[in-house]
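Supplementary Text 2. Reproducibility record for the structural model of the 404-residue chain.

All settings were left at their defaults, and a single model was retained for analysis rather than an ensemble. We include the record here because the model underlies the residue-level annotations in Supplementary Table 4.
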Amino acid sequence: MNATRLFSYTDLLENLKTCTRLQFNGKLVIESDQGQQWDLYYRLGRIVCAIGGEHPVRRWHRQMKKYSPLVETYKSEFRESDLVQPQWDYQILRILRQRQEVNMEQIAAIVEGTISEIVFDIAQQTFTTALRAYRDDSSIIESPLTLSRRGYFIKQLEKKWLLWEQSGLSKISPNLAPVLRNAHQLQEQVNPTIYKNFTVLLNGKLTLRDLAVNMKQDKHRLTRSLLPYLQKGLVELVTIADFPKPKAYDSTPLIQESQAKLNSPLIAFVDDSPQACYLLEKIVVGAGYRCLALSEPLTALPKIIQQKPNLIFLDLVMPVANGYELCSQLRRIPVFARTPIIILTGNDGFFDRVRAKLVGTSDYLTKPIEAEKVLKIIGKYLPADPGLKQQVLGIQSSSASSLP
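Retained model, structure tokens:
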């Protein structure tokens, strides 16, 4: 970790250029003496993710609305464990990609838009407060969603900040919200159309950036058009609060209910997709079984050894350790020699099935995840309880949700 020091706008550019030149892997941390922090995550000298600063939730809604307007961000729900992560907005993009709600082109645009906003805000802060920066090579995003062009954000910053400064806007943050202060005087000076637009839009509820996206305008052009009214005191810029985070669903009641049924079989599933874990959990618990959902492949093995589930689902494609490797390790442990182990994957090739048999898997289940298929394969390997059988029949039609 590098030592910290105060730095200016020129120093910011030099830090960004140095990270690019060194093909840095890790994060560049920038802190202000007012308690703000921004983290720029690098991969091979390219910024792949950025977090921190003001209005992170507004920023996420704004980028989604701009580049993926069909996703209803206010209605989307995510796991609480995803929303508490530092890079929660980045994690949500992964989830939305898995749900096939966004494509890679949209993801690239959203990530670039987020990074551009954050870098711009840091640049503006260099003129108003003392900043410190250091590089941390212990925090690495191993599988970035997208790789930007080398030096792209440096060029974007130099271009956008120069234009902002030359327009006399250097002291105006795009995170401020315009509010009308003297409607009567404004009405006397502008035509009815402009006056109507001002009274509707300038209500202090949306930032300059929010308004620019809603109006499909460039934020520089919008802010520049408001400058005369700001100078006359007809419009004022105020600070406003961030939006609340997206909704979180709570699977705790489901888990607690399953654990209460101590005599029912325990089914484990290892999948690095939190959404796949949630869907499997919903199907399994709804059928009356207990569940052990594990989304971290590296820590899954000791937890499985400790809990000794009656049946195990293993996702095939996972970072670091795949389903074949985990199955092979489990089969070397005597207590799991006869435990049903099911490989879960989107691949359905002959070679994959042969390899699955060679490492000792019991069966092979292809995605998308469907309740009927999951429950059928569970019933194949676990003895049926009369009470559970009725529950299974009841949810086969109602829980036939799918996940890519």
